[in-house]
Amino acid sequence: MEGLRRGLGRWKRYHIKVHLADEALLLPLTVRPRDTLSDLRAQLVGQGVGSWKRTFYYNARPLRDSQTVRDARLQDGAVLLLVRDPRP
After folding, report:
1. CA 80-72-61 angle, 5° bins
2. Which tops the pLDDT comparison, 6 or 41?
3. Distance from C-alpha of 16 to C-alpha of 42, rounded to nearest angstrom
4. What is the number of alpha carbons within 13 Å of residue 13 lying toward its C-beta?
5. Which residues, other chains included, contact 86 with Cβ-Cβ below 8 Å and sequence gap of 6+?
6. From CA 33, how far away is CA 46, in angstroms rounded?
7. What is the pTM of this model?
8. What is the arithmetic mean of pLDDT over 27-49?
9. Residue 87 half-sphere exposure, CB side, CA atoms within 13 Å?
10. 51: closest CA among 60, 59, 41, 43?
11. Please, which domain of life does this record's source organism belong to (predicted)?
12. Of 44, 52, 75, 87, whose CB count within 10 A is highest?
């Protein structure tokens, strides 16, 4: 049963949204549990949104680019906030 559960994890998809505070946009993304935040950035670039030098926040805590969707504990329907880094 555990092998089946692990095998189904490959097909699992989450529909999340990224809120761009500076542009007042809410963009939908489809991600897998093993995708990293860098992968999300790449998807945003593919949609024409520059996400570099910005930080993702979820539940008021910053997320690292190396974290996976699973590590960040994102769930289906989650909304991430993407804001400019306060550091110069």
Report:
1. 60
2. 41
3. 15
4. 5
5. none
6. 20
7. 0.81
8. 94
9. 3
10. 41
11. Eukaryota
12. 44
The predicted structure's pLDDT at residue 8 = 52
Q: Which of 10-14, 26-30, 56-60, 74-78 has the lowest mean pLDDT?
A: 10-14
Alpha helices in the chain (DSSP H): 2-8, 37-46
Find the mean pLDDT for residues 25-50: 93
What pLDDT, on the 0 to 100 scale, is given for residue 9? 53
43-69 burial, b at 16+ Cβ within 10 Å, e below that, comes to bbeeeebebeebbbbbeeeebeeebbb
Q: Which pLDDT value is given to residue 22?
A: 83
CA separation for the pair 71, 34 (Å, rounded): 9
**Coil/strand/helix, residue 31:** strand
- Mean pLDDT of all residues in the chain? 87
